[in-house]
Design goal:
The complex is a heterodimer.
Chain A lengths: L1 H26 L2 H4 L4 H7 L5 E3 L3 E4 L3 E4 L3 E7 L4 E8 L6 E7 L6 E6 L5 E9 L2 E13 L4
Parallel strand pairs in A: 1-9, 3-9
Antiparallel strand pairs in A: 2-4, 4-7, 5-6, 5-8, 8-9
Chain B lengths: L1 E7 L2 E7 L22 E8 L2 E8 L8 E7 L6 E8 L4 E7 L1 E2 L2
Parallel strand pairs in B: 1-8
Antiparallel strand pairs in B: 1-2, 2-5, 3-4, 3-6, 6-7
The chains are: A alpha+beta, B mainly beta.
C-alpha cells in the first residue's frame, strides 16, 4: 500500500514538472519568431490586413553605432490597444517581441533590441480585430545579430 | 533582476533589468563552434497578483534585457512581480513594491 502511494506521488510530481515546459512551448509562437522574412512573421502572427497609422509613436536613434543594443520606445495612441509587436525588417528573424497589455497596463514599452543592419524598426499594434503599422528607419553601423 | 517601480502622478513606471545572455544561436566561440540559442521566451508581469503584461520574445532582444512599462491604477505599496522563462527551461522571478518619487 505504501509503495503504491509512493509511486503515485512520484508520477504526480513528474507530471507537474513536465507541465510548465509543455505549456511554455504552446505559449511561444515558434513559426512567427523563427520566420526569416517580415511577411512570414506576419503570417505566423495571423495578421491578414495591416493599416498604416500615425498614432503609433516609435522613438529610436536615427543612428545606432552598436547594432547589438538599440533602445526603442513604442507608444500607441490607438484606442483599445491590446498588443504591440516589434520587428526589425532586415534581421535574420524579423519578429523581436510581442507585448500584451491588460488590467491597467498602458500601451507603452521601452526595450533594447538587436539590429543586423540599417533597416526599419516596425511597430504593429493590435486593437480589437485590427492591426496597425508604423515604421522608423534606424541606421546601423555594426551588425548586432551575430 | 533589478527592478524599480515609481509612482509619478497617475502612472507607475516599472523598470526592469534582467541578466541573461540572450544568445541568438548564430554566434561562434573561439573554437568555431556555434553557441546554442539561449534566450528568454516568455515574460509576465503582475500587479498584486493580477497579470498586467505578457510578452513573448525572440532572439532579437538585446543581451541583459531592459524593459520599461507603465501601469495605471497602482498605489504606493502595491506589489509588482516579473517572471521570465527561457528556451532551456530556466526561469527567474523578482518583485518590488511601488514607491513614490520624492
Amino acid at each position: 500500500m505504501q509503495r503504491r502511494n509512493f509511486l503515485q506521488a512520484c508520477l504526480g510530481i513528474t507530471a507537474l514538472l513536465l507541465l510548465p515546459l509543455r505549456a511554455l512551448a504552446a505559449a511561444w509562437n515558434k513559426s512567427a519568431f523563427e520566420s526569416t522574412t517580415l511577411d512570414g512573421a506576419l503570417q505566423g502572427l495571423n495578421v491578414a490586413k495591416l493599416e498604416p497609422s500615425s498614432e503609433i509613436e516609435i522613438t529610436a536613434p536615427a543612428y545606432a553605432e552598436n547594432g547589438a543594443i538599440v533602445q526603442v520606445e513604442i507608444t500607441s495612441r490607438i484606442a483599445n490597444t491590446e498588443s504591440i509587436f516589434i520587428l526589425a525588417e532586415k534581421n535574420p528573424t524579423p519578429l523581436i517581441a510581442h507585448f500584451t497589455f491588460s488590467n491597467g497596463a498602458e500601451p507603452f514599452v521601452v526595450t533594447r533590441i538587436k539590429m543586423a543592419e540599417t533597416a526599419d524598426v516596425v511597430a504593429l499594434v493590435k486593437a480589437g480585430d485590427r492591426y496597425y503599422k508604423a515604421g522608423r528607419k534606424v541606421e546601423v553601423s555594426e551588425n548586432g545579430c551575430g | 533582476m533589478k527592478m524599480r517601480a515609481q509612482l509619478k502622478g497617475d502612472i507607475t513606471e516599472v523598470k526592469v533589468l534582467m541578466g541573461h545572455p540572450m544568445e541568438t544561436g548564430r554566434r561562434k566561440n573561439d573554437l568555431d563552434e556555434v553557441i546554442p540559442a539561449h534566450f528568454i521566451q516568455l515574460v509576465t508581469a503582475t500587479l498584486n497578483g493580477k497579470t498586467v503584461l505578457e510578452a513573448q520574445w525572440g532572439t532579437g532582444i538585446s543581451k541583459n534585457p531592459y524593459l520599461t512599462f507603465h501601469l495605471r491604477g497602482a498605489k504606493v505599496g502595491d506589489k509588482v512581480a516579473v517572471t521570465w522563462h527561457d528556451n532551456m527551461g530556466e526561469s527567474n522571478s523578482s518583485e518590488i513594491f511601488v514607491t513614490a518619487v520624492s
